[in-house]
Amino acid sequence: MANDAAKKLAGEHAATYVEDGMMVGLGTGSTAFFAIQALGERVANGLNIQGVATSKDTEVLAQKLHIPLLALEDVPYLDMALDGADEVDEQGQLIKGGGGALLREKLVASAAKKFIVIVDASKEVKQLGAFPLPVEIVPFAWEKTAQKIADLDCHPVQRQRAGKPFITDNGNYIVDCHCEKIEHPAELHQQLKLLTGVVETGLFIDMASVCVTSDGQTTRVRDFA
Ligand SMILES: O=C(CO)[C@H](O)[C@H](O)COP(=O)(O)O
Predict the structure, then answer these.
(1) Which atom of ligand 1 is nearest the CA belonging to 7?
(2) pLDDT tens digits, one per residue of 99-118
(3) Taking the mean position of all CA atoms in its chain, how far away is CA 159?
(4) Alpha carbons 57 and 170: distance in angstroms, whole number
(5) Whose CA is nearest to atom 6 of ligand 1?
(6) Which long-range contacts (CB under 8 A, 24 or more apart) does 64-72 make?
(7) Which of 2, 182, 210, 225 has the highest local Cβ count within 10 Å?
(8) Which positions in this protein are listed as binding substrate (predicted)?
(9) Nearest residue by C-alpha to atom 10 in ligand 1
């Protein structure tokens, strides 16, 4: 993959923020993968951390790397969470959920004192919305919920995998909303959240503390806290 070098560099840089004794949220996706792998190497060399996984896939990866895992409900807070994103704008607002893990990712990031976002340079945008916004909805009467989302001019398309509805780790569906341009991300998030049937949106508003971006050669750190 063309962006793998950038994802690796950003992921490895993000992993250096983690200190001994921390409880760390472990993100989902191909960029978070590199951060988790770097953490696994540090754990093998004696780093003492405990992780909270944001998806079943990440749980399997962390177990393979011998990173001790906790359940989110068993910790009062997390020191830090590391995760990728699908888009990051200039204010640090995010679209997430391309991998379908947005609900757990948001729960984990909300519990963290510091949320480190890790992206390759292609994810930096002036305005959110070119990437279809994932919205997690309950399967019951999902078409009704999708219609209400469509009424907000959000153009939802049910996510499919192998010709069947994609099912999240929480047993829900995802609709990907082809907004093209999201002028007011916070307002859109609120409007969507008010719809019965919507579980969570992939808009992560005012959550990122730091964004680590790489183009494969260099790394840029932006502070949003
Ligand atoms: O939100 C996510 C998963 O739900 C991912 O963080 C996001 O889709 C970015 O993934 P990748 O690093 O593979 O491009």
Answers:
(1) 12
(2) 999 999 999 999 999 999 99
(3) 17
(4) 13
(5) 84
(6) 64/40, 65/36, 65/37, 65/39, 65/40, 66/40, 67/26, 67/36, 67/39, 67/40, 67/43, 70/23, 72/107, 72/108, 72/111
(7) 182
(8) 28-31, 83-86, 96-99, 123
(9) 29
Q: Does the pTM exceed 0.95? A: yes
The answer to whether residues 55 and 154 belong to one domain is: no
**70 pLDDT exceeds 70?**
yes
CATH number at residue 219: 3.40.50.1360
The answer to whether position 127 is within a domain reads no
Q: How many domains does the chain have?
A: 2
The number of the ligand 1 atom at minimal distance from the alpha carbon of 32 is 12
Whether ipTM tops 0.95, in short, is yes
87 part of the active site: no
128, part of any domain: no
CB atoms within 10 A of CB 193: 13
